[in-house]
Write a structure and sequence with these properties.
By secondary structure, the chain is α/β, with parallel strands linked by helices. About 40% of the residues lie in helices and about 15% in strands. Bound molecules: NADP nicotinamide-adenine-dinucleotide phosphate.
Length: about 425
C-alpha cells in the first residue's frame, strides 16, 4: 500500500502539544507518538513506557498522563506499508511535536542512508543531545567514572554526514575532480570517491545557541566548543569562531570566553557566568579520560560528536545505558544510542535502561522534572541493588541477572517505593 494512503488514527483521549511564541505549551495529557522500532525495539520501548507511566502517575497522582500514539517506521512499516519511514509517521511527529523511538535497523547497501538521518533531516532536528553521566554500580573501564558528567550537543544536519558524496568512478566524482583541477588547481587522485563537508554559520550558531541556553537553564559551568579547526580552518575553525561569536553577541551578559576569564579574572570565572572555551577534537578524547571534571556541556560538529559521544558512553557503562534526544527549535525525538541488536530480538533479554533514560530526557523536555528525577532515581536504585540484565550482570560480580521485563518491573516497584 503506498504510504500516502496510510491513515494513522491518534488516540481518542489526549491533547496536542502546542508551539507558542514563548515556548511549548504542554497539556496534562500530551499525545506522544512512539516508534517501537526494530529488533529489540518493541521490548525496550514497552519496558520504558511502563516505567515512564509509573513515574508520571506517582509524581502527579493521576493529574497528568501521556496518551501514547504508536506510529510505524522501520522493517515492520516496510512489510505492512511498503515504506520504511511513512509520510504519515513523519506528519504525526510534526503535528504532535515530541516523540520517543526505539532503535531501527538500517538496511545495509544502497538506497536508504539511515532512517535516523532521514528523521533528523526531514524534521530539521539539528541538535543531537547526549547526556553522559555515571549511575553508581554501573561497570566501567575507568577508575573514576563518577568524574564524568557531560552533555554533548552534536550538530545533526551538516558536515560529512550531510550525504553529499559521489562514488569513485561516477560521472559526478570525475566531474568534481576535473573542476578541482581546472578551476582550483587542486590535484585529487582520479580513482577517488568525493565527499563534501559543509559547515554553515546558521547551522553552527543555532547548535551553540541551544547548548548555551541549556547550560544557563541547567546551571552548568562551561560550554566547550570541540573542533578540528587547526586543520580544517574554514569548516571546523569557522564552527569555533561562530560559537564564540554567538556567545558574545547573544549571551554576553551570561558568558565569558576563556581568554577574558584569564585576562580579567586570573582564570576564575565570575559567579553565575558560563565559561566558553574550546578544545581541538583529538585532545578532547584524552581530556575526557584524564580530566573529565573540567568539562560540562560540549558543543561540536557532526562527525566529532559521533565519535566523542560513543567514547564518552563507554566510560560510564556502554551503549546499553546511553540515551539521546534529537532536537529542533520545538520538535524533539528521544531514543537510546544503541541499535536494534537483531540477534536478541524477542528474547526478553536486553537492557532497557537506555530507552528509560531517553524517557527521562523526554520528561525533562516536557518540563515534568519531578517525574524525570523519580524515574532516574528508580533506575539508579535497581542498578545499585545489582538487579541487572545480562550485559551488566556479566561484568558485575554478585549481581542477579534478570530479563528485560523483570528489570522493568523492578524499576516500577522502585518508583512506587520512592517517597512522595
Ligand atoms: P547494536 O544494535 O547497538 O548492537 C551491538 C551490540 O551492543 C549488541 O550485540 C549487544 O552486545 C550490545 N547492545 C546493544 N543494545 C543493547 C541493549 N539494549 N542491552 C544490552 N546490550 C546491548 O549495534 P549493531 O549490531 O551495529 O546494529 C544493529 C542495527 O541497528 C543496524 O541495522 C544499525 O544500523 C542499527 N542502529 C540503529 C540505531 C538507531 O536506531 N538509533 C543506532 C545504532 C545502530 P553483546 O552482543 O556483546 O551483548
Amino acid at each position: 500500500m503506498p504510504s500516502e494512503r496510510l491513515v494513522l488514527r491518534p488516540p481518542e483521549r489526549g491533547h496536542k502539544i502546542l508551539i507558542a511564541e514563548a515556548g511549548l505549551r504542554i497539556p496534562d495529557d500530551p499525545i506522544i507518538p512512539v516508534i517501537e522500532g526494530d529488533g529489540i525495539g518493541p521490548e525496550v520501548v514497552h519496558a520504558a513506557a511502563r516505567a515512564i507511566d509509573a513515574a508520571i502517575a506517582d509524581t502527579f497522582g493521576g493529574r497528568r498522563k501521556i496518551a501514547w500514539y504508536p506510529v510505524p517506521a522501520g522493517e515492520k512499516a516496510m512489510f505492512q506499508y511498503g515504506e520504511l519511514l511513512p509520510q504519515a509517521t513523519l506528519a504525526a511527529i510534526r503535528e504532535y511535536v515530541v516523540a520517543i523511538k526505539g532503535p531501527m535497523t538500517t538496511p545495509v547497501g544502497g538506497g536508504f542512508r539511515s532512517l535516523n538521518v532521514a528523521l533528523r533531516k526531514t524534521l530539521d532536528l539539528y541538535a543531537n543531545v547526549r547526556p553522559v553521566y555515571w549511575i553508581p554500580g554501573m561497570p566501567s573501564p575507568v577508575t573514576h567514572p563518577e568524574r564524568l558528567d557531560v552533555v554533548i550537543f552534536r550538530e545533526g544536519t551538516e558536515d560529512v554526514y550531510a550525504g553529499i558524496e559521489w562514488e569513485e568512478g561516477s560521472p559526478e566524482a570525475i566531474r568534481m575532480i576535473e573542476i578541482l583541477e581546472k578551476e582550483f588547481q587542486t590535484q585529487v587522485r582520479p580513482d577517488s570517491g568525493i565527499g563534501v563537508k559543509p559547515i554553515s554559520e546558521t547551522g553552527s550558531k543555532r547548535l551553540v545557541r541551544k547548548a548555551i541556553r541549556y547550560a544557563i537553564r541547567n546551571r552548568r559551568r562551561s560550554v566547550t566548543l570541540v573542533h578540528k579547526g587547526n586543520i580544517m580552518k574554514y569548516t571546523e575553525g569557522a564552527f569555533r569562531a561562530w560559537g564564540y561569536e554567538v556567545a558574545q553577541d547573544e549571551f554576553g551578559d551570561r558568558t565569558i570566553p576563556w581568554e577574558d576569564a584569564v585576562r580579567k579574572y586570573d582564570g576564575k570565572v565570575p559567579a553565575d557566568t558560563i565559561l566558553i572555551k574550546d578544545v581541538i577534537a583529538d585532545n578532547m578524547f584524552q581530556q575526557l579520560l584524564l580530566r573529565p571534571e573540567e568539562y560540562d556541556v560540549l558543543a561540536t560538529t557532526n562527525l566529532n560528536g559521533d565519535y566523542l559521544s560513543d567514547a564518552a558512553a563507554a566510560q560510564i557503562g556502554g551503549l546499553g545505558v546511553a540515551a539521546g534526544g534529537n532536537m529542533g527549535d520545538a520538535h524533539a525525538v528521544f531514543e537510546p544510542v544503541h541499535g536494534s541488536a537483531p540477534k536478541y530480538a524477542g528474547m526478553d533479554k536486553v537492557n532497557p535502561t537506555a530507552e528509560m533514560l531517553a524517557g527521562v530526557m523526554m520528561l525533562e523536555y516536557l518540563g515534568w522534572q519531578d517525574a524525570a528525577v523519580r524515574l532516574r532515581d528508580a533506575v539508579r536504585k535497581v542498578v545499585a541493588s545489582k538487579v541487572v540484565t545480562y550485559d551488566l550482570a556479566r561484568q558485575m560480580p554478585g549481581s542477579k541477572e534478570v530479563s528485560t521485563s523483570v528489570f522493568a518491573q523492578a524499576v516500577v516497584e522502585a518508583i512506587h517505593g520512592a517517597p512522595r
